[in-house]
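Same chain as my last thread, 370 residues:
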Amino acid sequence: MPVPVPTANNNHQAAPINYLIHKASPKLLPMTAVVLLLVTAPSPAQDRAIEATLAASEEAADAGRLSAAEALAREAIAAAHAEGSLRLAADAQRRLGQVLIDLNRYPEAGAALRQSLATLEPLGQSESLGRTLASMALVHRYQADYPSALEWLRRAEQIFIAAGDDTDLQETYNSFGVIYDLMGQQDRALEWHSRSLELARELGDISAIADGIYAIGEVHRALGEHDLALDYFRESLALDKASGLSRNIAYSQIKVGATLIELGHRVEARSQLEAAFSLFADIDAPRDYQWARANLAFLTALEGNVDPAREELKDVLSRSLAADWPRLANHSREWLVKLELQAGNPATALAHLDDVLRDALEQQALRRAL
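reply #2:
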């Protein structure tokens, strides 16, 4: 069960720093925050314990264990407040916001991130503030509010430039590229992804270089240039293998497999997807395992085995709903619409389509709530 987070409004003793900052004069707010940060700083051991909890939350989210990730983030928030650490409380609020984004709980994610911003902004321009701004951009990006997402990213970009933080700046450039790609402005997307890739190469970060090449492949795939996209995805996969990051290897294998399906190369596509499937099973990544399983099911249907593919996708959908993986659930529904129509079951296809449309309307309402 998530740990309730004490706030200035409901528990002054549990959150003395937040309460005092809340009561401070706006003119004195930056100085008040800095002084309180200095005089109430927790011990290094306490810092390390909270940072370990945040790292565990991130690891759980990467593996698709989102409920555990949320609980750990809330635990870190409570511990940071109890110890009086402004910085770690803000970082923990950002971590919670990121998990809630994964859960499609966008208003809650926005609220958590705004709490992080409220703590960080009085302390001045810092990389931590920039990361929270970039996370706010994600909230708007996933709600298809691309102009707002770009505004948040521009603010983050200026902070990272001022701080000389090329690592976060490289990721921000990549995010600009993703948004312009989603907006259908592929030329601008390629410009930003190229800047991101150039910076990744300057940093010598193999994983970031692979991500940049992967992103350029996505743009070419959106343009219908599947052969060129496949070249980029293969290059990204080779770099992922060189870095030895199993999860990244599997992601690239799925993208290579999906592109091979589009090009009609089903035998090699199956080989890539099965390799990803096995990797996700080995690293205990249940959500990604189900993603690979869904891709394999769709390929099975294309190979003419519609009935077993349909049953596989139904099971993926059921597991996605039970685990609260909304994006995978919707992708499964979309594939099931196609398969039910192919099997001559228009009523069942319509029921799945109704669920997809209902979710789209709910997401529209959530965007308005932001």
